[in-house]
Amino acid sequence: MITFNKPLITGFEEKYLKEAIHSNFLCGDGLFTKRCNESLKFLTQSKKVLLTTSCTHALEMAAILIDIKPGDEVIMPSFTFVSTANPFVLRGAKIIFVDIRIDTMNIDENKIERAITNKTKAIVPVHYAGVACEMDTIMSIANKYNLFVIEDAAQAIYSTYKGKPLGSIGHLGTISFHETKNIHCGEGGALLINDEKYIERAEIIREKGTNRSKFLRGQIDKYSWMDIGSSYLPSELNAAFLFAQLENVKNVTAKRLEIWEMYYDNLSSLAKKGFIELPTIPENCIHNAHMFYIKVFDIKQRQNLIDFLKKNDVQAIFHYIPLHSSIKGLEIGTFNGNDDCTTKESERLLRLPLHYSLSSENVNYITSLINGFY
């Protein structure tokens, strides 16, 4: 079976894990955590990066940092994972869902402004498949209405918008290092801080509400409870594993882009004949080949293609069920305007296997099956 995903192993993880074990400091914020933070700060050009236990937790920290309270409204796409919404719902916010663009599956920047009310606190753009949202427009709207922008860049490490790394453009950004991502540590994430005024409090929130970070740096002789917070700090074992992957992010991305381009080339003839649609990469956006998807005619044809590929030992899967149509989404959110694209396009989307271990022979086999299906 050609699986949809195979978690990346670079070959250096075991070496660094042994180093971490023999350091006798395993609880986090040790040598490997610092290495990851600095590496990510360089990659993202953010003012400060803090490794977290997940991207979900990074978003929870962001919600606390911008002081989300009951009654606040937060704008985001419905076509996203529940982790984009949960951190704000936990703080009492109402979610305002906005339709997506048909080309990138990202939030439609031209429909954000009409969703703004006097209760709106933040906009959360999601860079789907590592392809940038139209951030100039989004930041302009946010500045006009004095709103926060928190980039959900979970899938977008090493992707850029007009030369700027994704996650570094809004007030805060988040990245995921779940095993399904380009680089990972099994489960992990990072908070990107692009405004220095949030740095000190972010360190406190991440350390259960204490100023332990200052204590570890020798700035104070004891630490105490300073603010609300939680245990958002990953262990040194996670950081050691991740650092081995961060060292190889450039090569990993290059290999994934080769696979992505091979898919695109091999399926272009089907797209030209109108059988399927291929991904769109807008001008001035550089993506990281996080995923390769096609769009088929409708949900019925998608299931037929999934079944056909499965019979031929290929695992292909669809993606999000729009949040606004879920049980909880109906309870805590509202879809602003018409659902012209979100549901329809989500039902057409099919993701194909894409991981570092995928060979050119695998891609040729998968694409020959799809061509044969049509």
Features:
single chain, Aspartate Aminotransferase, domain 1, 2 domains, eight-stranded mixed beta sheet, three-stranded antiparallel beta sheet, globular
Description:
With 374 residues, this protein is of the alpha/beta class. It has 2 domains: 13-246, Aspartate Aminotransferase, domain 2; 249-373, Aspartate Aminotransferase, domain 1 (Alpha-Beta Complex). 37% of the residues lie in helices and 14% in strands. It has 13 helices and 13 strands. It has helices at 13-22, 31-44, 55-65, 82-89, 135-145, 199-206, 212-216, 236-246, 249-272, 299-311, 327-332, 342-346, 360-373, and strands spanning 48-52, 73-77, 94-98, 120-123, 148-152, 160-161, 164-165, 172-176, 189-193, 285-286, 292-295, 333-335, 349-352. The chain has an 8-stranded mixed sheet with strand order 1-9-8-5-4-2-3-12, with helices on both faces. Strands 7-6-10 form a 3-stranded antiparallel sheet, with no helix packed on it. Strands 11-13 form a two-stranded antiparallel sheet. The longest helix has 24 residues, at 249-272. The chain is globular and about 70 Å long. The two termini are 22 Å apart. The mean pLDDT is 97.
State the gist of this model.
This protein has helices at residues 13-22, 31-44, 55-65, 82-89, 135-145, 199-206, 212-216, 236-246, 249-272, 299-311, 327-332, 342-346, 360-373; strands at 48-52, 73-77, 94-98, 120-123, 148-152, 160-161, 164-165, 172-176, 189-193, 285-286, 292-295, 333-335, 349-352. By secondary structure, the protein is an alpha/beta fold.
Secondary structure layout:
Elements: H1 13-22, H2 31-44, E1 48-52, H3 55-65, E2 73-77, H4 82-89, E3 94-98, E4 120-123, H5 135-145, E5 148-152, E6 160-161, E7 164-165, E8 172-176, E9 189-193, H6 199-206, H7 212-216, H8 236-246, H9 249-272, E10 285-286, E11 292-295, H10 299-311, H11 327-332, E12 333-335, H12 342-346, E13 349-352, H13 360-373
Parallel strand pairs: 2-3, 2-4, 3-12, 4-5, 5-8
Antiparallel strand pairs: 1-9, 6-7, 6-10, 8-9, 11-13
Helix pairs in contact: 1-8, 2-8, 3-4, 3-6, 9-13
